[in-house]
Design a protein that fits this description.
With 474 residues, the protein is an all-alpha fold. It starts with 18 loop residues before the first helix and ends in a 21-residue tail after the last helix. The C terminus is likely disordered.
């Protein structure tokens, strides 16, 4: 890890009587910073889709070329989420995230001055690569600053950054066209959003904090002593500090069956999500006989219906299910199975739209809860690596099943074959939800036993650290 990105440690310790006040202030600032920062990543990613009509017209690119450019970015982003999130485990979250935003802004500026297909291809691959620097620091920060009992609600709040970022891209680009005119579409589409991203990077640097112990505070396990933290069962600080990103990955993630289960949950959720989202316009127009206006309404409802549901699922996973994330996900997937049948078989415009809306409401619930669960099945210093594996599998494998493979099956055997893919994905998702839940229950019991055997909560964290049982990671 280069020196610039290494975590910095405040030499002055916070006085005991100020710990709680500063802790509450820093964690709130960190949540605000990562939410605004991740929304800005969307501003310099989704703006590319808005620029494609101008690319096609002004640069005389074919529809196939535009499709290739979008695929390049998607694949690069999926791969980058894997290794960049792993690198983030050893970095200062705010510097790593801010650098990613600045690099994305720089690539957008270069896109504004590019006119050749090969140059644009190289740039969108780089853009997808640097986009992978956003998600890891967000989950690492939440794991470092918020105890398990609050992560459902906090994760749901942060998750709105997806909708916030995706929702403000079009107004920002539209404002760019208003200021600079359509003749300068490159400035409006790329350079103006890049300036917003630069401002976002400054916000991240000003608000986001490193781990509590790097800010002069005690570790989270000491500030919130009753929290179920895996950190107390694993290596001491000195051992972890000397481990590389690869050593952390192969020790705490690669052999961890719980991480693989939650990654497969997310993989099959993405299959359903993209299988519905990608093919909904064509299916509704060609098979259901919708008009373009009716299809647009159904598509809009599918996307925006998720916001209140995601927030609600975070609350109930914390309060009703006592920190267990998979029960709401299991309920959602069962309901999704029934709604896909209704969406498939219904001949009514209203019923089809309602079934699509319910799927849209629910499909983001297991996706969001899988991300929260990921923070709770590995120590905090391995969260980035676990998020990276989950992101790689969901984006590269899950989206492939929901887009390209779905399309091939539809071409060969018809739409029924495509829906069979969705039903299979739902069933497999349910299976891995159950396995993930059983793994979480086992970890909860192990932590309860460990808590009964350790020294009092006020004792230093090093006195209570020990190795996890071998079967927890094998």
């Amino acid at each position: 890890m280069i020196s610039l990105l290494k975590p910095r440690q405040v030499r002055t310790r916070v006085p005991n009587d100020q710990i709680q006040r500063i802790y509450r202030s820093f964690r709130l600032r960190t949540l605000l910073g990562i939410t605004i920062g991740y929304a800005c990543f969307y501003v310099v990613r989704n703006n590319f889709a808005l620029s494609t009509p101008y690319l096609k017209a002004d640069l005389d690119l074919s529809a196939g070329s535009i499709g290739l450019l979008s695929s390049y970015m998607l694949i690069a982003y999926g791969c980058s989420k894997g290794y960049m999130s792993s690198f983030a485990d050893k970095a200062d979250p705010k510097r790593f995230m801010a650098l990613g935003l600045l690099l994305c802004a720089f690539i957008n500026i270069l896109l504004g001055f590019s006119s050749g297909f090969m140059a644009i291809s190289a740039l969108v691959i780089l853009l997808g690569t640097f986009q992978g620097m956003g998600v890891g620091p967000c989950f690492i920060s939440m794991a470092k600053w918020y105890p398990k009992k609050e992560r459902g609600i906090i994760g749901a709040i942060w998750n709105t950054s997806h909708n916030l970022g995706g929702g403000i891209v079009a107004p920002i680009v539209t404002a760019g066209f208003f200021l600079f005119g359509t003749e300068h579409w490159q400035v409006a589409s790329y350079i103006f959003p890049a300036m917003i991203a630069v401002i976002g990077a400054v916000v991240v640097l000003c608000l986001v904090k490193g781990a509590p112990e790097n800010e002069g505070l005690p570790k989270l396990s000491e500030i919130v002593p009753n929290d179920e933290s895996l950190d107390n069962l694993t290596q001491d600080d000195r051992t972890v500090k000397n481990m590389s990103s690869w050593q952390i990955f192969k020790t705490y993630v690669l052999p961890n069956k719980n991480v693989w289960c939650v990654s497969l949950v997310d993989t099959f959720v993405y299959t359903v999500r993209f299988g519905m989202l990608t093919w909904m316009p064509i299916y509704l127009l060609q098979v259901k006989g919708f008009t373009k206006a009716e299809m647009a309404i159904a598509f809009l409802v599918f996307e925006w219906a998720a916001i209140p549901t995601t927030l609600f699922s975070g609350v109930i996973s914390d309060k009703l299910f006592k920190g267990y994330r998979m029960p709401p996900a299991i309920i959602s997937m069962i309901l999704i199975f029934g709604c896909i049948i209704g969406y498939w078989q219904s001949d009514s415009l209203l019923e089809t739209t309602v079934f699509a809306a319910i799927v849209g409401c629910l499909i983001y619930v297991p996706q969001f809860l899988a991300s929260v669960q990921t923070m709770e099945i590995v120590p905090s210093y391995a969260v980035g690596s676990a998020v990276g594996l989950r992101g790689f599998m969901s984006y590269v494998i899950g989206t492939s099943f929901g887009t390209s493979i779905f399309g091939v099956v539809v071409d060969r055997v018809g739409w029924n074959g495509g829906f069979y893919i969705l039903f299979t994905a739902v069933i497999l998702c349910l299976l891995f939800c159950v396995l993930t839940h059983l793994g979480a229950v086992k970890l909860h019991r192990q932590l309860a036993v460990q808590g009964a055997e350790t020294t009092p909560a006020s004792a230093p964290a090093d006195h209570v650290s020990r190795k996890l049982e071998t079967n927890s990671y094998n």
